[in-house]
Model the fold of this input.
Amino acid sequence: MTAEDFRRMALSFPETTESSHMDHPDFRVCGKIFATLAYPSDGLGMVKLLPEQQQEFVHDHPKIFVPVKAATKTVLRPALIAAWSNTAPKRVAAKFTGRE
Done:
């Protein structure tokens, strides 16, 4: 998984835009951040999860959902979907079909 793969996947959700804060690219739905790239350092990404979701992803994929460069598209996509869905307004989330 490259930074460009992460970017393309994050931008594939309805009404998502790329912006930045603190010199890092971020991905927003209706102005709210749901993922950040190159944070806390280059080669890493962050997805905004609820504590229960974070616990589940860390439990199921402990080598990926810690600061390592091991995420695959298959593993990252469900985490991005959860983060985007947590952040998107209901009217926007209703538009998402789950297909790329």
